[in-house]
Design a protein that fits this description.
By secondary structure, this protein is mostly beta strands. It has strands at residues 3-7, 10-12, 18-25, 34-39, 46-51, 58-60, 68-73, 78-83, 92-98, 104-105, 109-113.
Length: 115
């Protein structure tokens, strides 16, 4: 079955960086676009970043443009989210998803930005 396992979250100070990873299995990874979503307590889930199946095109939410970078390694069946210049408002659970619109979701990894 499809599995998406996120890692790399944690506590970081404002201005810091984190790199999230999402290891995929159970489907042909290279055929699917992938995305990162996030959900903060009491807020709606929101799309953070998207990458096409081959990695040739990406899209970002306005609130992360210039700070976050999505990438993928199809040989490793892994999608990444490099997050720089983190702000307290980036605090959320971050999930990776398969497909667009999403057909599968990972459990998520907590990112907390706080001094």
């Amino acid at each position: 079955q499809v599995q998406l396992v996120e890692s790399g979250g944690g506590l970081v100070q404002p201005g810091g960086s984190l790199r999230l990873s999402c290891a995929a299995s159970g489907f042909t990874f290279s055929r699917y676009p992938m995305s990162w979503y996030r959900q903060a307590p009491g807020k709606a889930r929101e799309l953070v970043a998207f990458i096409t199946s081959g990695g040739g095109a990406t899209r970002y939410a306005d609130f992360v443009k210039g700070r976050f970078t999505i990438s993928r390694d199809n040989a490793k069946k892994t999608v990444y989210l490099q997050m720089n210049s983190l702000k307290p408002e980036d605090t959320a659970v971050y999930c990776c998803t398969q497909g667009s619109p999403p057909v599968s979701w990972g459990q998520g990894t907590q990112v907390t930005v706080s001094s």
